[in-house]
Amino acid sequence: MSETIVVAGATGYVGRHVVEALDARGYRVLALVRSQERAEAPGPFGAPSLRGRVAEWKVVDYSDSTTLRGVCEGAGRLVSALGVTRQNASPWDIDFLGNLRLLEDAERHGLASFLYVNVLHSESGTSLTMRSKHAFAEALRRSRVAGQIVNPSGYFSDVTDFLLMAKKGFGFTLGDGTAKVNPIHGADLAEFIVEHLAEPSASWDVGGPDTLTYRELEELAFRIAGRRQRILRVRPGILRPLQWAADRSSPRVSNLTRFFLESLRIDAVGTPTGDRRLEPYLRAIHQPPAGNMRSPSLWVEKY
Ligand SMILES: NC(=O)c1ccc[n+]([C@@H]2O[C@H](COP(=O)([O-])OP(=O)(O)OC[C@H]3O[C@@H](n4cnc5c(N)ncnc54)[C@H](OP(=O)(O)O)[C@@H]3O)[C@@H](O)[C@H]2O)c1
Predict the structure, then answer these.
(1) Per CATH, which fold does 4-156+184-207 belong to?
(2) Pocket test for ligand 1, best of 54, 82, 140 (most atoms within 8 A of CB)
(3) Contacts of 39 (CB under 8 A, 6+ apart)
(4) What does DSSP assign to residue 66?
(5) Per-residue pLDDT tens for 12-69?
(6) Which residue of 65, 87, 151 sits with most ligand 1 atoms within 8 Å of its CB, as the best mutation to test the pocket?
(7) Distance from the CA of 230 to the center of ligand 1, in angstroms?
(8) Does residue 14 line the site of ligand 1, with CB under 6 A?
(9) Sequence ranges of the domains in the chain
């Protein structure tokens, strides 16, 4: 019988591509989800539906450890793409504690490895998201289960926001926008993950084939949107008062502001991986096929 791989965060952008890649390679997938119904519908940004790709479903609540006990029983390995991005939850509760509870179960059942989708530069970020992710990566390094840590630069799904803003005729950069990023497609990242599944403990920085400055990313988005370029250059001097104000708002606003301001300021470039290019992806998002006009982010399958 084929090896069972537990996938946490299976309904997310990366998680869906991981399930698809595992299933295509003949693995038996056990998906941890909040809603099977949602998992079986197509995901955003062209991420696939999980219908027919999952051998076993488990509905879990990461704040209730009783729902996580035994999820690894009989499995060989675990891949976690679990993390708070657009959800309204504390990264500490999900990225750190949720993954830690999974790791405890993986240790209890003697899994061969735990592959964690972290983020580039989590060790130096000061947002709660970065601190939570780094804290879990450190816990994984000290586990008796082999820990594989993948540090992606950024995803095509997130770059979509630049296009959506450009379509509204607006963009911005921090300072000159000279920090660089090489975003990766979810399917390319999933292929990397599945190829490295059986390797011993390791850590990899990965990105996509195109490296651009944020300024170039904005210009590309305006070119594709066909709008006159209006890119606001945010002066670095405004960052501290902006963060000060955000810190006095909600914990969520404070964290997101810190996360994005830090991300836009430093290079996030991982080893180029995969061959899916950013420009055709964005062009496809911009001009969805007839019949899919209402939800452009839902259909992009091939880019
Ligand atoms: N986006 C980027 O550019 C980027 C770059 C580098 C690293 N990363 C990291 O890569 C990982 C995957 O990112 P992604 O873009 O695939 O994220 P995503 O689409 O938001 O998926 C995250 C997954 O975690 C689950 N999750 C989040 N909050 C939850 C909660 N409160 N309770 C239960 N489940 C919860 C989601 O479940 P639901 O579907 O039920 O919400 C989903 O399955 C994340 O850890 C992220 O931090 C992201």
Answers:
(1) Rossmann fold (3.40.50)
(2) 82
(3) 10, 11, 16, 31, 33, 49, 50, 54, 57
(4) G
(5) 999 999 999 999 999 999 999 999 999 999 998 999 999 999 999 999 999 999 999 9
(6) 87
(7) 31
(8) yes
(9) 4-156+184-207
